[in-house]
Design a protein that fits this description.
There is one protein chain. Helix 3 runs antiparallel to helix 5. The N terminus and C terminus are likely disordered. The protein is built from twelve helices and no strands. The protein has one domain. 76% of the residues lie in helices and 0% in strands. The chain has 292 residues and is mainly α.
């Protein structure tokens, strides 16, 4: 996406005036596209390698749904980051918003549901797994993966980016643009892990807190979309701002519904298992009238 935008700027300003020369623009475009392809392909390949390593260690029966989820997330990320979709996003604010929704919400959720840390723990030796588990329980990681922290890291930059048209130029910057996309993916994955992560969490937040974080995220996302819609037609805003805001509003709701479904299923399964254990314990308890 960004590479195509940079290339378009280079074609419009081929020389001088502090602008980027055409050759430099081509080089940046190639570097960005290569880095993006390598990053997403590396995520997919690394997951498959870890899966194979776990099998070699005798750890079989890895759910195919988790593998499909991870690979789908990586594929979606790759599709919207390079190629025709990225080219469209470089020229259309609505297409950019579609890319944002995929990179910031849908792809991270699919990646998190792939349970990559659990797979890595199955693939590495026991001593390495213990170190990783200890790291996951360390105070910095606990703070970073807290639902409130994850929510702030996800919502705040998005609110600043779409506050007005002044920050949108960052999307076409050869350094800031890719950094923003990396942030979208990382913060989205962090939030998804905090509220519905299936990987081990030694200090998982309560159901109430995680549900509250999801509801606040829905409300904040809707408020930002409505604010963006109100800016349509004002100076400094690109064409198609209204359509982009509507896509942000309804598309964000669609992904949030998926997030809520996953969350509710997890809570139902957990409470259902607890209920069955209590029922089993009561049925196998002492007979009525027996003195204990």
């Amino acid at each position: 996406m960004l590479g195509d935008a940079v290339l378009g700027d280079a074609m419009q300003h081929p020389t001088g005036g502090g602008g980027m020369a055409a050759g430099d623009g081509d080089a940046v475009t190639f570097a960005v596209r290569t880095a993006v392809v390598l990053a997403w392909s590396g995520l997919a390949a690394g997951y498959l390698v870890a899966d194979r390593a776990a099998v070699l260690r005798g750890r079989t029966s890895w759910p195919a749904a988790r593998t499909a989820s991870w690979l789908s997330g990586a594929l979606l990320g790759l599709v919207v980051s390079v190629g025709p979709v990225a080219s469209a996003a470089g020229n259309s604010f609505t297409a950019h918003m579609a890319v944002h929704l995929v990179l910031g919400m849908l792809a991270p959720l699919l990646l998190v549901l792939g349970a990559p840390m659990t797979l890595v723990l199955r693939a590495v030796p026991v001593h390495a797994g213990r170190r990783l588990a200890g790291l996951a329980g360390s105070p910095p990681i606990r703070i970073l993966t807290h639902p409130v922290t994850a929510l702030v890291l996800s919502i705040t930059p998005m609110a600043l980016l779409y506050r007005d048209g002044s920050a949108l130029a960052l999307l076409h910057d050869p350094v800031a643009g890719p950094a923003l996309h990396v942030h979208f993916v990382a913060s989205g994955a962090l939030f998804a892990y905090a509220v519905v992560g299936v990987d081990p969490q030694p200090h998982r937040a309560s159901v109430t807190l995680r549900a509250g974080a999801i509801l606040v995220s829905i409300a904040a996302h809707g408020m930002i979309a409505k604010h963006l819609y109100s800016l349509s037609g004002t100076a400094g805003m690109p064409d198609g701002t209204a359509a982009a805001a509507q896509l942000m509003y309804y598309g964000g709701d669609a992904v949030h519904v998926l997030l809520l479904v996953v969350f509710c299923l997890q809570v139902y399964r957990r409470t259902g298992r607890a209920g069955r254990r209590r029922a089993g314990a009561s049925s196998s308890g002492p007979a009525s009238g027996r003195v204990v």
